Amino acid sequence: MSSHAQNALSLRNGAYMPSEIEALACELFERVCRDDSFEDLKRRAAFDRQDAGRLRHWIRAAHAMLAEEQSQRR
To answer: Which of 3, 34, 35, 59 has the greatest count of CB atoms below 10 A from its CB?
Structure first.
């Protein structure tokens, strides 16, 4: 199944929007990395492989937290 199809399936099942995931990732990142901003990380990720990996890490962490929160509601 393509990632687009998986995202569409998640949204139909009442899951979270990508903006929710990014907002949580931003909150988590800025709570831990007080001397950096999530927007700066996103800009750097376009040019730096390590920062791109860091950005993916924070997005996946936020996604997992939202998924866990949703599964606990059921």
So the answer is: 59
**Which residue is listed with tokens 């687009």?**
4
| Under 8 Å between Cβ of 66 and 21 | yes
pLDDT in tens, 3-58: 444 444 444 444 567 899 999 999 999 999 999 999 999 999 999 999 999 999 99
pLDDT of 16: 67
Distance CA 57, CA 12 (A): 25
Q: DSSP readout, 7-66?
A: HHHHHHTT---HHHHHHHHHHHHHHH-TTS-HHHHHHHHTT-HHHHHHHHHHHHHHHHHH
Q: How far is CA 62 from the centre of its chain?
A: 5
